[in-house]
Design goal:
Radius of gyration: 15 Å
Oligomer: single chain
Shape: globular
Order of helices and strands: HHHHHHHH
Number of strands: 0
Structural class: mainly alpha
Strand content: under 5%
Largest sheet: none
Length: about 140
């Protein structure tokens, strides 16, 4: 207590979570999804393997939700919503909701839109990886 700042503790937790979960799925589709997410740079924001929450000043909660966290389930209810995030950079609903737009427009790091940069097969593979990740973590 008193030796580490809150930011240092957050960094340490993110490091421990990432290093403790450095496994790669055996499922071929999920493994391909991991590779696609890595190629697209998803882990630079969502943390190693999608399991770390990076800081995001100006966002609603101040960080980028990890794919295996509770916040992810609040933002992404089903595959359709996940596809909206990946392809459009935000859900269609958020484009017309003034409060959602307020936070999404002022956050330092914005979700990029991958429409035109990802194939349907790659999109399904990322969905498989995130599904694997969420079922491999208790309580998510």
């Amino acid at each position: 207590r008193g030796r580490l700042s809150y930011a240092q503790i957050d960094d340490l937790v993110a490091y421990l979570r990432a290093s403790a979960s450095a496994d790669v799925p055996e499922d071929a589709a999920a493994r391909k999804g991991h590779a696609v997410a890595e190629r697209l740079g998803c882990f630079r924001c969502h943390g190693p393997g999608g399991r770390g929450a990076g800081s995001n000043p100006g966002s609603l909660k101040g960080y980028i939700p990890p794919w295996d966290g509770r916040d992810f389930a609040e933002l992404v209810v089903d595959e359709g919503e996940l596809r909206e995030w990946i392809l459009g950079g935000r859900r269609d609903l958020h484009k017309t909701n003034p409060l959602a737009r307020f936070f999404l427009d002022r956050q330092a790091i914005r979700m990029p839109a991958f429409r035109g940069h990802i194939t349907e097969e790659e999109l399904r593979a990322i969905e498989a990886y995130i599904g694997w990740l969420r079922t491999s973590v208790p309580g998510s």
